[in-house]
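Re: that chain you flagged

S.,

Sorry for the slow reply, it's been a week of failed gels. I finally had a moment to sit down with the sequence you sent. For the record, here it is as I used it:
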Amino acid sequence: MPKIYNGKDVYTAAMERFEYIFNNFDNYYFSVSGGKDSSVMLQLAAKKAREMNKKISVLYVDLEAQYKATIDHIYELIDEVKDVLDNWYWIAMPLALRNAVSIIQPKWICWNTKEKRKWVRDLPKNEWVINEKNYPKEWDWFYKGMEFEEFILYFADWFNKKNGGTTACCIGIRTAESLNRFRTITNKKKEKFQNKSWTTRFHIKNHAINVYNVFPLYDWKAEDDWTAVFKFDLKYNDIYEQMYKNGLSIYEQRLCQPYGDDQKNGLNQFKALEYDTWEKVLNRVHGVNFGNIYCRTSVLGYMKTEKPDNMTWQQYTVFLLESLGLYVPELRDHYYVKIKGFFRWYEKKAGILPNEIKDEEDKRLENLRRVASWRRIARALERNDFWMKRLSYCQSKKDAKKLVELQKKYKNLIDKNDSHFQGIE
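Prediction finished late last night. Pasting the structure tokens below so you have them in one place:
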């Protein structure tokens, strides 16, 4: 059904929401990413703030592996809203982010000082930047490797306690982007501010805080963003124009860190749009070039937990081994030897030849390690089970030595604090 606003267009409705925010919340900050939605939101909010003689704060979380064009646009936005700017929180902290292009390194930490030589960019230096060395002493809740989503919650709580009253965290999401975003707005069980459906109260560990997510542009479409850019001469990230020239429609264009579950679908865009940046992105985390090769296929998206429907568990096992072999051939060979030993044991003890092993057996018996199946083998590989305990192996001195050798050779892939290293000298 078409949106009806008593004769109002989405721009008029959004400007009225900004006025409502400035009149009804005690303080507010706008979360920006450098993307078109948050960029339009911030510039329109600044326009309303000028009319009402208000000051605004902005949160920008710098995830390191960004387009140069995005960083240029962030500086452009700072300059654009500086006349109404109270504070710009430029966060360049070591946060844990999803790496959906590798089963060896499922997460990576941006701005990790231990990997400084591999950073995609130098640490930004300006008056707004908050990094690991200068963050506020009140941030006793912060720890290195903190999840991005957790950081957002605790930052909101800190901002609210610092300023008092009730806080609005303004986010430029649109319900047209996904069903989950639509549900966020239509959820009847959520806590709202003054019964406004476009607000959602923050909770930390089931405890409500005086902060509300606010979505001023929730009813906009991509076309509305670009109409506003044209009509009001707004600044925008030049990377979108490059994406369009590279064949992406306005509905397919995505920003944010390139290794996430959604963003990996456009990972190879880095190579086409900013080659210098691509070279650094390629070497920053494990599995990126593999992601570039396969990001247009369905197979990569299943690497975390499930095999593709068109594969048997045996085929999936081979796929996982081949994937490992692209980057850590020693690890692939290690698992190959373990699987061969697994076959020999069942052939000797149960008289079951490798070609007689079924793709699946009873799950309960698989979990109890009482039957052999290709699914049982694949699940061990999925979990990167170095000791192969899922195949009934125990930790050995030989394997422990091998693991230490791998850790030395692939420092960026294997964390020495991993549980695999417990008890190893």
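What I noticed first: Residues 329-350 form the longest helix (22 residues).

Talk soon,
D.
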